[in-house]
Amino acid sequence: MDKLSFELKRINNTLLIIMVVILFGSCGRMDEIVVPDEPIEVISETGTEEMVDLGDGYFGIYTGYELKIYYYDTEKNELILKKTKYLSEDEEEE
Question: Which of 5, 6, 38, 52 is geometrically suited to a Cys-Cys bond with 60, CB 3.0 to 4.6 A?
Fold first, then answer.
């Protein structure tokens, strides 16, 4: 019985040491979450959702706060910038 009791104490001590090592090891490895103070500007690529068909070869592309109106000449196979219109809150109310 004495040998069995001694062996159980050794197993208990070993498990206790393993538990302490795992506990302190996991607490020391906490990941930090870094939140930037400045807002990050997202630059989006021009996709079809930002294009507006104006008819007769004309179409518009929204980029930021402006609308660029282009004309596609089918005979010359050229794309021509016709006009740039700046969109502001004042113009939307009118």
Answer: 52
Where exactly are the structural domains of the chain? 48-89
Largest separation between any pair of C-alpha atoms in the chain: 103
SS3 of residue 22 by DSSP: helix
What pLDDT shows up at residue 51?
85
pLDDT tens, position by position, 31-89: 666 766 776 666 555 454 588 888 888 988 887 778 899 998 888 888 899 999 887 75
- The amino acid occupying position 39 is P
Question: In this structure, is the dihedral angle defined by the CA atoms of residues 80, 83, 84 and 88, taken in order, positive or negative?
Answer: negative
Residue ranges with strand state E in the chain: 51-55, 58-63, 66-73, 78-86
pTM for this model (two decimals): 0.42
Q: For residue 33, give the H/E element and its range.
A: none
Compute the C-alpha angle 60/79/77, nearest 5°.
Answer: 135
